[in-house]
Amino acid sequence: MFWRNGKMIIKLNSIILDKLTSTEKKVINYINNNYKNIPNMSIIELANETYTSPATVSRAVKKCQLNGFAELRYKISEEMDNEKNSETMNNVLEKSLKEISNTIDYLSLDDILESVKIIKNSKKIYVLARGLSELVANEFSLKLQLLSYDAFQISDPNIIISLAQDHLSDDDTLCIFSLYGKTESLIKAAENATSIGCKVISSSCSDNSSLKKLSDIYLQGYKHEHHSIKNFEVSSRLPLNVIARTIIDYLAQS
User: Fold this and answer.
1) Is 224 a domain residue?
2) What are phi and psi of 132, to 5 degrees?
3) Which of 3, 131, 153, 230 is the most buried (most CB within 10 A)?
């Protein structure tokens, strides 16, 4: 009875058309052409809009295999909810697809291969991150360990700064994950590492981060501008996950 392409709410076939009078056809045509308004209308309002009577509207609807006007309104509302949910789902999936595809487009194969070379030649690898980016760093560090690299994940800002000041050597590597590249402790760590010749690989979604100038390799991802939860900084780290996975996969294959 109900089409899902939005073109016709009540499907008319030859059997139904034979039962409808010309006036009743006028009512059904109005419903199909203005179905989004129907859930908020009464049967009297619909009759007035079609210059018919409530009885005519009721007969027309019942001849279309519905129990009455109330069922018609319910089914239209349900159909509109389905369309809305489908549109919402498409928007959600489109956001993730855009972040993934654009991040992949942003990545340079040369930079990925150079990152792999640096990590393979490192004595120790320190993976630094703050906030939700710690989840990316934690997984990245664990996978490095599974690949037999001497890797450590650090998120405490005081330890990050102290480490960079006192414990790094020029054959170590910092791998930094920061969505916006503005975290003070991470920038300070990169400055200290650079000053002693320690390699720095940074992953971020900012084109003008201070980390970019301080990094031997800067891997930039794409961050969608939409924020699902607006009152807190809980943006998706999907772009950073894509970058981290790409490095790990290349390391594993090499």
Assistant:
1) yes
2) -65, -20
3) 153
Does the pLDDT of residue 163 top 60, yes or no? yes
Where residue 71 sits, what CATH number does that domain have?
1.10.10.10
Q: Which residue has the higher pLDDT, 87 or 195?
A: 195
Tokens 């498409």 belong to which residue?
90
Residue 88 identity: T
What is the tens place of the pLDDT at every residue in 41-50?
899 999 999 9
Residues 174, 63: Cα–Cα separation, whole Å: 73
Looking at the chain, how many residues does it have?
254
Q: Is residue 6 part of a domain?
A: no
Tally the domains of the chain: 2
On whether both 115 and 194 belong to a single domain, the answer is yes
CA 93 vs. chain centroid, Å, equals: 6
- DSSP letter string, 39-102: GG--HHHHHHHTTS-HHHHHHHHHHTT-S-HHHHHHHHHHHHHHHHHHHHHHHHHHHHHHHHHH
Domain that holds residue 40: 14-85
Residue 125 lies in a domain: yes
